[in-house]
Amino acid sequence: MTAVVEEKTAIEFKGRMLMMTVLQLKNLDANVLHQQVSQRLEDAAQWLQEAPVVIDVSPELDSDPVALMAAVDTLRSLGVNLVALARSEHIDADTASMLGLGTLSLAGGREVPRRTEPEPASNEGAPETTPAAQHVETMVIDQPVRSGQQVYSRGDLIVLAPVSTGAEIMADGNIHVYSNLRGRALAGVRGDTSARIFCQQLNAELVSIAGHYRVAEDLPESYRNKPVHLCMQGDAMHFTALN
Q: How far apart are the first and last CA of the chain?
């Protein structure tokens, strides 16, 4: 009798939404970077200190390889968890490889064009397609989202209970929290800058729309613990009180 040896799978690919922090460099001076980054890390929450970081070199800068290498060395010496360089016409795979980094295309913060379906050859006798018929189903959560939990919706996300510190809610569309928002809320995660965030009590660790984010320390004091509506106006996040 021949023994059957079961082969164990060595790898497994898993799909998961992971949040990365984009650090845009507007100055490659190592001394300036050391001073400003160390101060921000000292004031940042623990999750931000450990977050994977993508370097986005401002297009206004002359991407001198020597200066860029010094900047990367400075960031690494401060414990910044660098994982990639944002691709641009000045940054290529060879530059990233020289720095021991990968490259990544940044879609966050840019308008993502809507996919248009091909028109039928003839409209005669065909039912009219409405925007509502094409809308991705909204996800509704009626239980508290607790620390360590992560919720993701391909459409809008409605949460009827509190979102705890350490929890993360994400949606391709809008986010509505009809209670206390203390965790992280990321709307428009696939780059939709028209996405919005609504909450009854704003006490978030982080709020983000299409890659633009504000951490707790940067939230306007006048809107804390109050009903708030957040949207993008240009490249800036706009806060409006909900009455």
A: 78
Q: Which of 73, 68, 48, 69 is nearest to 57 (CA)?
A: 68
Q: What are the mean pLDDT values of the chain's consecutive 10-residue runs (243 residues total)?
A: 62 63 85 87 66 83 80 89 82 80 63 36 45 64 90 92 92 94 91 94 92 87 94 92 86
Angle between helices 30-43 and 65-77 (to 10 degrees): 30
For 77, 87, 91, 170, 182, the CA distances from 63, given in Å and listed in that order, are: 20, 12, 8, 34, 39
pTM beyond 0.85: the answer is: no
Tokens 């079961």 correspond to what residue? 6
Residue 173 has phi, psi (to 5 degrees) of: -105, -135
Please name the helix (run of DSSP H) or strand (run of DSSP E) that holds residue 5, with its range, or none: none
Integer CA distances (angstroms), 14 to 17, 52, 103, in order: 10, 18, 21
The 10s digit of each residue's pLDDT in 136-189 is 688 999 999 998 888 888 899 999 999 999 899 999 999 999 999 999 999 998
218 with 237: CB under 8 angstroms? Answer: no
Query: Cα separation of 125 and 128, whole Å?
Result: 9
What's the pLDDT tens digit per position in 77-91?
888 888 888 877 777
8 Å CB contact between 184 and 152: no
